[in-house]
Amino acid sequence: xxxxxxxxxxxxxxxxxxxxxxxxxxxxxxxxxxxxxxxxxxxxxxxxx
Length: 49
Description:
Radius of gyration: 15 Å
Shape: elongated
Number of helices: 2
Order of helices and strands: HH
Distance between the termini: 21 Å
Number of strands: 0
Strand content: under 5%
Largest sheet: none
Structural class: mainly alpha
C-alpha cells in the first residue's frame, strides 16, 4: 500500500476483507434497530459495489 497524501507513516489503515466490512455493517444496523429485511437490502447493495 503506497503512502497517500496526508497519511502518517506507521499509521496506515489495515486492509480489511469485504466480508469483515459487511459483518460490521450488519452488526451496526442490528444495533440501530433496522429490520432484517432492510439489512438484507443494504447487504445486497454492498455486493454490487
